[in-house]
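Lecture notes, unit on binding sites. The following record was shown on slide 14. It pairs a sequence with manganese (II) ion.
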Amino acid sequence: MQQLALLANIDSPPVQYWPGFLNQTQADNLLEQSLALNWQQNQMKMFGRPVPLPRLESMFGDSPKIFYTYSSSVELHAKPWPIFLSELRAQVEAQTGYRFKLAIGNQYRSAQDSIGYHADDEPTLGIRPAIASISLGSTRSFKMKRKNVGQTHSFDLSHGDLLLMEPSCQDNWVHAVPKASRSCGVRVNWTFRPYLLG
Ligand SMILES: O=C(O)CCC(=O)C(=O)O
Ligand SMILES: [Mn+2]
């Protein structure tokens, strides 16, 4: 039995999870302020053709030099922090003990919006980045599995939850928010990340 528990531990994703990290009022206010920001509809090239991503995005950071590219076609540039978001960063840093230089926002407008399996392993994040995620709005399923193989682990991320992907996470695991099977309202997710400037 003990051995089974040990094996189960070995396969657990390296995350820490604080459900209800934000109280209801704070989470409500943050959702409202987040939705009032400018969001980008980015496109990704598929077979040479531009296809709109199934979500809206935005990015804020410590320097206008911070930019972020992925899938060889999407480019995000950091805008200066809105006060509410830099205050949220401070709260997340105090809880997790990590420091973050940027936040990427994803807005999932409905059950149809999603993000596919990926690891956040862009070189600009540095080696083995810790990444913290705050969820606001509708509950969505956050899936994790070991790269290429294995059983899927699922977390229901709800309004005000904090999830920390620890430093080894991006080396060995991929994560996704698939389309939801039932209709749901809007969800905003902020991932706070390090960044190597310079
Ligand atoms: O929406 C989420 O919970 C995850 C977002 C994510 O993985 C990303 O932006 O890289
Ligand atoms: Mn990610």
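Take-home: The longest helix spans residues 83-96.
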